[in-house]
UniProtKB/TrEMBL annotation:
Keywords: Adaptive immunity, Immunity, Immunoglobulin domain, Receptor, Signal, T cell receptor. This is Ig-like domain-containing protein. InterPro entries: Ig-like_dom, Ig-like_dom_sf, Ig-like_fold, Ig_sub, Ig_V-set, TCR_variable_region. Residues 2-95 form the Ig-like domain.
């Protein structure tokens, strides 16, 4: 059965600190897609990063994730967090081609394999 695992609970960091959020997964498909979503308070969740075999190190707005198939991981990092980065971060795994969920990257609630971790950053 496919799944994702995020071990962190609430994370508190000072501004400028390195953020690392761990995500490991299990899947039977070699062509699966991996996602990080960000959910800021009073806003809808937004796609932050999407990784795949053809894009194993996606980057966006200072965030980056590295897809490592050998240890089934897709960890999220940001070199220097800001207070504005405080949010809930979701790691998701979705084999969109096989399940026919083409819009999944825009609708995180549609993913069955979704777990969250809250990042709380203080100055």
């Amino acid at each position: 059965r496919d799944s994702v695992n995020q071990t962190e609970g609430p994370v508190t960091l000072s501004e400028g600190a390195l953020l690392t959020l761990n995500c490991t997964y299990q899947t039977t498909y070699s062509d699966s897609y991996h996602f990080w979503y960000v959910h800021h308070l009073n806003k809808a969740p937004q796609l932050l990063l999407k990784g795949s075999m053809t894009n194993q190190r996606p980057e966006h707005e200072g965030f980056q994730a590295t897809l490592v198939n050998s240890d089934s991981s897709f960890h999220l990092q940001k070199q220097a967090v800001q207070a504005s980065d405080s949010a809930v971060y979701y790691c998701a795994l979705n084999d969109t081609v096989r399940e026919g969920c083409g819009g999944a990257e825009h609708k995180p609630k549609g993913s069955r394999r979704l777990k969250s971790v809250r990042g709380i950053f203080s100055p």
